[in-house]
């Protein structure tokens, strides 16, 4: 046990010295990036310069960016769905830096706790700190991605129905797209539609703009819709209007199913609190009854 405590104290000291070095060198370098982060998603964001600085040192040493791996590219695309297509790589850096920073901060604290308490319990508490905070950051990011996809799926049937109605009334497909995109200034789906319109105005082809639109939304229904829209542009809306009507009907049916699933999920979440309340009532009612019965029997 003494050897383990000594090794922990030495490791904690090394980590603290490294933390102080990174603080002195990088504490002011990434201020503009950190200030723009959403504190609700990125817990303890003021510490992230530690991880960003360590990544900077690693890339300088290896002459290789951490965003070049297949895993990094996939994760960057997911992050682009929430934080914008131009910010996927940046937020990948931030996500990795967040985990590194929190581990670098709480690992020496956990090691010192184990030494001060002189027991495995201290090391266990420290390990929990090291695990919980980085997991919390990743969980918040995953929740943000899921929330955006849910918001897009919720609005998708309305969007397709509006677009189908306008095209069926004789409006040109491109103009109908812009009309629907401008009809709602709050929801995520319409913001992505406006972004696709800007891409086309900037010279991007319709196919490339719709591919980017589907990638940002990250929903398979949008990808299917995008292919139908591209076909409508190439062949004429009159030939694709039936496909759009079918898709609108499917989208409304899927929305009903999602609503039912959410209701079932909410009911299942209430099951645990109800069980706890039931056990509490049973303890309050049954335990005194059993105690009285045992007291009467002993008497």
List descriptors.
299 residues, mainly alpha, 11 helices, 84% helix
Description:
With 299 residues, the chain is mainly alpha-helical. Helices cover 84% and strands 0% of the residues. It has helices spanning 2-26, 31-35, 49-62, 70-83, 88-117, 120-168, 173-182, 188-201, 206-217, 220-235, 237-298. The longest helix is centred in the C-terminal third of the chain and has 62 residues, at 237-298. It is flat, with a radius of gyration of 28 Å. 25% of the residues are buried. The mean pLDDT is 78.
Nutshell version of this structure?
This protein is mostly helical and 299 residues long. It has helices spanning 2-26, 31-35, 49-62, 70-83, 88-117, 120-168, 173-182, 188-201, 206-217, 220-235, 237-298.
SS-derived structural category: mainly alpha
Ends: how far apart? 54 Å
Report the radius of gyration as a whole number of Å.
28 Å
User: Considering DSSP H and I runs of 4 or more, what fraction of the residues is helical?
Assistant: over 70%
Tell me the overall shape: flat
Main beta-sheet strand count, sense and barrel state:
none
Give a count of the beta strands, DSSP E runs of length 2 or more. Answer: 0
Strand content: under 5%
Mean pLDDT level: 78
Number of helices: 11
Give the ordered list of helices and strands: HHHHHHHHHHH
- Residue stretches low in confidence (pLDDT < 50, at least 5 long) are none
């Amino acid at each position: 046990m003494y050897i383990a405590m000594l090794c922990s104290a030495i490791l904690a000291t090394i980590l603290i010295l490294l933390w102080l070095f990174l603080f002195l060198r990088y504490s002011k370098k990434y201020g503009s990036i950190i200030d723009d982060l959403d504190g609700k998603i990125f817990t303890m964001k003021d510490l992230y310069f530690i991880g960003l600085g360590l990544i900077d040192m690693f890339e300088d040493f290896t002459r290789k960016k951490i965003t070049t791996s297949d895993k990094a590219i996939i994760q960057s695309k997911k992050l682009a769905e929430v934080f914008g297509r131009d910010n996927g790589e940046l937020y990948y850096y931030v996500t990795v830096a967040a985990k590194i920073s929190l581990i670098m901060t709480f690992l020496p604290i956990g090691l010192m706790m184990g030494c001060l308490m002189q027991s495995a319990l201290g090391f266990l508490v420290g390990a929990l700190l090291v695990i919980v905070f980085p997991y919390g950051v990743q969980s918040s990011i995953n929740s943000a991605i899921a929330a955006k996809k849910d918001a897009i799926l919720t609005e998708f049937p309305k969007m397709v129905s509006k677009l189908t109605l306008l095209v069926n009334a004789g409006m040109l497909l491109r103009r109908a797209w812009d009309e629907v995109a401008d009809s709602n200034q709050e929801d995520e789906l319409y913001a992505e539609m406006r972004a696709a319109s800007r891409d086309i105005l900037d010279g991007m082809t319709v196919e490339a703009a719709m591919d980017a639109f589907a990638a940002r939304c990250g929903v398979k229904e949008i990808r299917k819709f995008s292919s139908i829209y591209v076909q409508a542009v190439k062949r004429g809306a009159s030939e694709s209007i039936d496909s759009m009507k079918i898709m609108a009907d499917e989208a409304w049916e899927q929305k009903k199913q999602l609503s039912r699933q959410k209701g079932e999920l909410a009911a299942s979440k209430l099951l645990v609190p109800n069980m706890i309340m039931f056990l509490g009532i049973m303890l309050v009612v049954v335990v005194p009854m059993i105690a009285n019965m045992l007291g009467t029997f002993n008497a």
